[in-house]
Design a protein that fits this description.
heterodimer, A: alpha+beta, Thrombin, subunit H, 2 domains, B: mainly alpha, 7 helices, globular
Chain lengths: 275, 174
């Protein structure tokens, strides 16, 4: 206590100087408008600078945490993207009519993998057995035909494109119903050939080709393309017909898988012929 | 005796404050370039306090003087901070002008005690610091330090002249 007293006596002037200057300072910034503004402004400036610098340091400490959270955020956002989702819902429609029995039903699907540049092209769609896709079902898009389902997984199916050397699809000339098989002999992804049309059938450039409906795969009457070249080679009984496709398989995206509800019936009837 | 001295200092306090706020405040405003020239004579109250005044009391009286002036100048704390500073450095400045035999601690550092030369230098030194602190506090930023120095220089001479005239007219030892 005595020491404290001596301390105050010895440094009293300095201590009271400090205390009173502090008091003056507070009075100045409290009651003088201009000085108050300067004080507030510069204290903001300095504290802002301080926080800024401090933040710049601590930012490095937090960097890995921030990176992790950003990465998980990215993953979450990627999962939110439409493309990242498997659309479980089956889009489709059936018509119930007593007079008109449903013959075909359609499953909307989306092409997720496609090729047009190889000899044997396949397309993958995002529908599988879960959605009622079976092998030997036809696939069309809004302008023409795409191919035939070959392999079916649970969620995905593989479609043999009409741009495949193995593919044979029944088609006919719209105006007179002479029919043949659509094959792909050229390597032009826009052009297929209609084979096996007898040479007495009148074919002209510009004729529309459509599906014949003679198979269990496609209903009849689906437009396929237009004749761009028709000729009968010497010594042949059949036309060589080039058909330009209405659709472009290079950019097809939304397709429909055709489910022939009476396929088994037709098949079993036809099989009795072979016995 | 003690009460008498205290009373005389109190009277001088009141008188100097009145002089400052009634005459020199207006004077500062009426002379051309009032923005730069501010005549401050009230620090003489601090100059003339007795030698034996404890340092802490000196500083405290400086604050009281300054805050009283502030009341009239409508600038709370600005004059007070300058006066507190002036009171704080007074012993240091006094020691610079200390005669060989030391001060008579019962007296005040006045013209009569120190002689006109020493008193003028003593007053001038304190006054420069007082004005400088005052202008810096008024600007409240070191950005205008040059302007603060200019104002200090411009205000210094008239203030010092009036302080010395005051000493000639009202010698406290009479």
């Amino acid at each position: 206590m005595r020491n404290l007293f001596l301390l105050i006596v010895k440094y009293g002037g300095f201590l009271s100087f400090l205390g009173l200057e502090l008091l003056c300072f507070l009075l100045i910034v409290r009651f003088n408008e201009d000085q108050q503004k300067i004080w507030i402004h510069s204290s903001n400036y300095f504290s802002g600078k301080l926080y800024d610098n401090f933040d710049a340091v601590t930012r490095y400490w937090n960097l890995s945490i921030v990176a992790d959270s950003l990465a998980s955020e990215n993953a979450r956002l990627r999962a939110e993207l439409r493309d990242a989702r498997f659309q479980e819902e089956v889009l489709g429609g059936t018509v119930t009519d007593e007079k008109w029995q449903q013959h075909y039903s359609f499953n909307a699907a989306e092409i997720v993998n496609n090729s047009i540049s190889r000899f044997n092209n396949y397309t993958t769609i995002n529908r599988g057995s879960r959605h009622g896709i079976k092998p030997r079902q036809g696939v069309i898009d809004d302008k023409g035909i795409v191919g035939i389902v070959t392999n079916v997984g649970e969620y995905y199916s593989s479609v043999m494109s009409i741009l495949n050397k193995e593919s044979r699809i029944g088609a006919s000339i719209k105006k007179n119903n002479f029919f043949g098989s659509l094959v792909w002999q050229s390597n032009d992804p826009k052009v297929v050939q209609l084979a096996d049309v007898p040479k007495h059938a009148p074919v002209a450039v510009g004729d529309t080709i459509q599906t014949s409906g003679y198979s269990t795969v496609f209903p009849g009457g689906i437009p396929v393309g237009k004749v761009v070249k028709a000729e009968v080679p010497d010594g042949s009984n059949f036309h060589n017909i080039d058909v330009a496709l209405f659709n472009d398989l290079g950019n097809a995206r939304y397709v429909y898988v055709i489910n022939n509800l009476m396929r088994m019936d037709q098949k079993s009837v036809e099989e009795t012929n072979d016995e | 005796m003690m009460n008498n001295k205290f009373f005389s200092h109190f009277l001088r306090f009141v008188f100097i404050v009145l002089l400052q706020v009634l005459i020199f405040k207006r004077l500062s405003f009426s002379i051309g370039g009032a923005n730069y020239m501010t005549v401050l004579i009230y620090p003489i109250f601090i100059f003339l306090l007795p030698h034996k005044t404890p340092h802490a009391v000196l500083v405290f009286l400086g604050f009281v003087l300054g805050i009283t002036i502030d009341v009239f100048y409508d600038s709370p704390g600005i004059h007070a901070s300058a006066a507190v500073f002036t009171a704080f450095i007074r012993p240091l400045v006094l020691s610079m002008f200390e005669p060989r035999g030391g001060y008579n601690l019962n007296l005040s550092p006045s013209k009569k005690e120190m002689g006109i030369n020493n008193f003028s230098f003593y007053a001038a030194t304190l006054l420069v610091f007082h004005l400088l602190v005052y202008f810096i506090m008024e600007a409240f930023s070191l950005v205008y330090l040059g302007e603060c120095l200019l104002r200090t220089i411009v205000s210094f001479l008239p203030s010092l002249v009036f302080i010395i005239i005051y000493q000639f007219i009202f010698d406290p030892k009479e």
